[in-house]
Design goal:
- There is one protein chain.
- The chain contains 13 helices and 21 strands.
- The protein is α/β, with parallel strands linked by helices and about 475 residues long.
- It has two domains: about 190 residues, Lyase, Ornithine Decarboxylase, Chain A, domain 1 (Beta Barrel); about 270 residues, Alanine racemase (TIM Barrel), CATH 3.20.20.
- Strands 4, 14, 15, 16, 17, 18, 19, 20 and 21 form a nine-stranded mixed beta sheet that branches.
- The longest helix has 21 residues.
- The protein starts with about 40 loop residues before the first strand and ends with a helix.
Length: about 475
């Protein structure tokens, strides 16, 4: 490709579809790996979810709107719970914590509780949602690299089961609060294991040069364990935690992380005579946003993680060759993981209405059709933040029209306001049509904003043919209510 003084977007030959997006034989096909289990088309070509078509949803609730398949969410939560329990049944067992940062509201917290998972929160606001939902404190893990004194106090007062400490200052603050309240703080130490996940730089959290955790290389993680064990009247050390990133499609990074985490686990047992009862391998399991993505099935993920832990324990357990012999060195820890995106991501799609359709000439006899919708980067910031790719489909009718290469864009005053960078849509697309973007359950509503004073969309839960609002649409009155003058 020849360079162009105005940049690559203007270069000759630019503008074709990506390699993973060949011209489709059927532009109306729903790729099952991208959608929730209850999404399909009816005989009129309308997208339906759990017995409700999107035309009726748009009429009742308006657009833009997040639509979540409740049963799909629950099934994915159960899938992680059951697969991990089965895979680790021969070890010390496993726990699954739903990562609330992906998407959390009161209804979702209750679904998580009812399906037998724990809940991972990382702010006082997320903890407040858990409290409102009646989530038991002992089944909550509290993350965060800069928890406030007020947040730590509330966590201790509510009886949060695991506070994942992230700095020396936090250990000191927490110790002082525990003494003041007359409790022992249940803690895990977040360890930076030096593993860089195969993901976007901004969502890789296991390498050394970043804000999270205690480094293994410099000895900070071992020192943190020592500081905690030196004050048994204030702390109960429950174990070690690591998180290497997000949107990860294989277990090689987890294997490297487990190797280093188990090494620290055994060093603590040997040098400090303390057996950490838990190891948490974090989350980050990827989903399919486009046909280029190939995530691991959850049952295979569980088996591979259990195999990794078994291998690392036997390899590092002071030369012992079987788990019953490893127990002579250290107790086999219970394992926990923290899926968020992998549960809620595929369960939700965003429904938009088309406002304008504009063909733009690119040069080299190419053109692109820009499709503007009634949402954008205020309801999905990920394309702008991470260059995240998404897919979409015409949702309100059938079309036999040939496909056209399209770019779906938002309504905001920002050239980077892109919803779907490249997609094939029917060439008879027109204003008033509905477009659905799958895989928007994670980090879309959670990262949403009121940019350009745009009220945020509602979240509509659908199950068994019934739809209900679980997060209401914001209004202009909501936006103005915070103005003090």
């Amino acid at each position: 490709m020849r360079s162009h003084e105005a940049g690559v977007l203007h270069a000759e030959g630019y503008g074709g579809p990506p390699i993973y997006l060949p011209t489709p034989g059927d532009v109306m096909e729903l790729r099952r790996e991208l959608w929730s289990q209850n999404a399909q088309r009816d005989t009129a070509g309308r997208l339906t979810v759990a017995g409700r078509d999107v035309v009726s949803l748009a009429e009742e609730f308006g657009t833009a709107a997040y639509v979540i398949d409740e049963e799909d969410f629950r099934a994915r939560a159960r899938g992680f719970r059951d697969s991990l329990n089965a895979a680790f049944s021969g070890l010390a067992g496993a726990d699954v914590y739903y990562a609330g940062k992906a998407f959390l509201c009161t209804a979702v917290a209750r679904w998580v509780l009812e399906e037998g998972l724990g809940l991972d929160v990382c702010t006082g606001g997320e903890l407040a949602v858990a409290q409102r939902a009646g989530f038991p404190g002992e089944r909550i893990g509290f993350h965060g690299n800069n928890k406030s004194v007020a947040e730590l106090r509330e966590a201790l007062s509510y009886g949060v089961g695991r506070i994942i400490v992230d700095s020396r200052q936090e250990i000191d603050r927490l110790g002082a609060l525990a003494a003041e309240l007359g409790v022992r703080a249940p803690v895990m130490v977040r360890v930076t294991v030096g593993v860089e996940a195969h993901t976007h730089e901004f969502i890789a959290t296991g390498h050394e040069d970043q804000k999270f955790g205690f480094s293994l290389n410099g000895g900070a993680a071992f020192e943190a364990v020592q500081r905690i064990l030196a004050a048994p009247e204030r702390f109960e050390l429950l174990g070690l935690h690591s998180h290497i990133g997000s949107q990860i499609f294989d277990t090689s990074g987890f294997e490297a992380a487990a190797h280093r985490l188990v090494g620290l686990h055994i060093r603590v047992a040997e040098e400090l005579a303390y057996h950490c009862p838990e190891i948490n391998l974090g989350g980050g399991y990827g989903i399919a946003y486009t046909t280029a993505h190939d995530p691991l099935p959850v049952d295979r993920l569980g088996v591979e993680l259990a195999g990794i832990l078994t291998r690392e324990l036997t390899a590092l357990g002071d030369g012992h060759g079987a788990l019953d012999q490893v127990a002579q060195v250290t107790q086999v820890p219970r394992v926990a993981i923290e899926p968020g995106r992998a549960i809620v991501g595929p369960s939700m799609f965003t429904l938009y209405e088309v406002g304008t359709v504009k063909e733009v000439t690119l040069g080299d006899r190419r053109s692109r059709t820009y499709v503007s919708v009634d949402g954008g980067m205020s309801d999905n910031a990920r394309p702008a933040l991470y260059e995240a790719d998404y897919s979409c489909t015409l949702a309100n009718r059938h079309s036999d029209a040939p496909p056209m290469l399209s770019r779906v864009v938002g309504r905001h005053c920002e050239s980077g306001d892109i919803v779907v960078l490249d997609e094939w849509l029917p060439s008879d697309l027109t204003p008033g049509d509905l477009i659905a973007v799958p895989g928007t359950g994670a980090y879309c509503r959670a990262l949403s904003s009121q940019y350009n004073h745009t009220p945020r969309p509602p979240v509509i839960a659908v199950r068994g043919g019934h739809a209900r609002v679980i997060v209401r649409r914001e209004t202009i009155e909501d936006l103005l209510a915070l103005d003090a003058d």
